Amino acid sequence: MHLVQGVLLDVEGTTSAVAYVYDVMFPYARQGMQGYLDTNWGSESLAEAAEQVARDAGHASLDAWRHASGSDPQRLVLDEAIRLMDADVKATGLKQLQGLVWQSGFESGELRAHVFPDVPPALAAWRAAGVDVRVYSSGSIHAQRLFFGHSEAGDLLPQLSGHYDTTTGPKREAASYAQIAADWGLPAAGVLFLSDIVAELDAASTAGMQTALVVRPGNAAVEPGHGHPVVETFAALPLTGVGR
């Protein structure tokens, strides 16, 4: 492995169990979506998310969507959110809505984010060694900050220097990783991307990043021959003596 100046982390299946996301967080958002919309409709943050849902659905604005359909805008947003969740579509507006619902759960203590036991000590060790650690997830930046700020291991945000989501670009496109490296101010070759998804690793590698496939309990099986180094724990990545 070449000199590593920054580590870019996926979340689901990498820092945290897939089961926690699918069995706890997604059902919590689905069950709480209507109540959240009823209570907070008209708030600035919800209005921004609703506008993004409308754009994701192919409309210029929520108002244009309302005029085109003749339906109540809150019902349009709710029905579209449920449809996207049921289809497991990682749309930007949906992720913003889910983040808002999760916020209430994390802040109330109903939710505590799962992280694998090797993650907190690795984050601390990398930071102490001068490695800049950031997150790139399909979940919104808002949701990422809630997740790592309310983990079972406590507040991990001080160990993270930045966050990226699908507003940067799709996770399976090389241009997204090139954009992240440019924003980071690091050469792509100085960044190590960790993920459980081969297509994401392929995209990062095409952009020039170093990669490693993370294998965790509960992850989908991966066919051999993908060409990426494999790790089962962050402890297998003793990144020391690095820096800008």
Q: How would you characterize the overall build of this protein?
A:
InterPro entries: Enolase-ppase_E1 (IPR023943), HAD-like_sf (IPR036412), HAD_sf (IPR023214). Keywords: Amino-acid biosynthesis, Hydrolase, Magnesium, Metal-binding, Methionine biosynthesis. GO terms for molecular function: 2,3-diketo-5-methylthiopentyl-1-phosphate enolase activity; 2-hydroxy-3-keto-5-methylthiopentenyl-1-phosphate phosphatase activity; acireductone synthase activity; magnesium ion binding. This protein is of the alpha/beta class. It has two domains: 6-16 and 113-236, 3-Layer(aba) Sandwich (Rossmann fold), CATH 3.40.50; 22-108, Transcription Termination Factor Rho, Rna-binding Domain, Chain A, Domain 1. 47% of the residues lie in helices and 10% in strands. The protein contains nine helices and six strands. The protein has helices at residues 18-40, 44-56, 62-69, 73-86, 92-108, 119-128, 141-149, 174-184, 198-206, and strands spanning 6-9, 132-136, 162-164, 191-195, 210-214, 230-231. A six-stranded parallel beta sheet has the order 3-2-1-4-5-6, with helices on both faces. α7 links the parallel β2 and β3. α1 (18-40) crosses α5, α5 packs parallel to α7 and α8 packs across α9. The longest helix is centred in the N-terminal third of the chain and has 23 residues, at 18-40. The chain starts with 5 loop residues before the first strand and ends in a 13-residue tail after the last strand. Residues 240-244 have low confidence and may be disordered.
